[in-house]
Here is the input.
Amino acid sequence: MHIEIGILTDDKLLYAGVAATALVAAHLPTVVRKPANLLRTALAAFFFSLLMQAWHLPIGPSELHMVGAMPIYLLFGFVPTLLGFGVGLFLQAALFEPQDMLHLAVNFLSLAVPLMAVHHTLGQRLQQLSVRKVLQLDGVYYTGVTLMVGFWLSISTETTAFAQWAAFAASYISLVLLEPVLTMGIVALGSRMQGKAPRLLQWALDEAWLKRTAVTA
Here is the structure.
């Protein structure tokens, strides 16, 4: 979901930075009130970064990444996942791709806005997890990611053919089809670990969320 460095003007990068900062600031009190979210945020950032670095493929005007958004969201909760995206992107830019620091806010919003849309619609109504529901979550989330990339391209200084964006968007169908397998397996494992895993690991998982989303066939 990265876009080419230099195609957004400084004023647009500034607006993105203000929006991203406001979004992070609005959710920080949740971490302060519940210290367990600090550990969950760190784990979300770690697994997100691991998946992003493990597999990515340039396609059209952007890149196809293995994000792992839904398993991270369902294991650690909304706020840790949201903040974990920001921490993970910052660490990746600092350690591997320093030039991406310029687009840190842009890339964060490309992941965070769709996550908010999923959480405040399908996510809050989710009671039990099934393959169909995970497909819905992934479908809505990755549609949001591709639309966010399309938005940035539409306000950039370079013209991008619709066919190029469409090819990039279509590539995410593979994640929508493959990621539910990962999600179902990891969430099922997390649910089984409740009450059995070491205390620190249990503390790291969002147990209330896992109970709500117990896996069904």
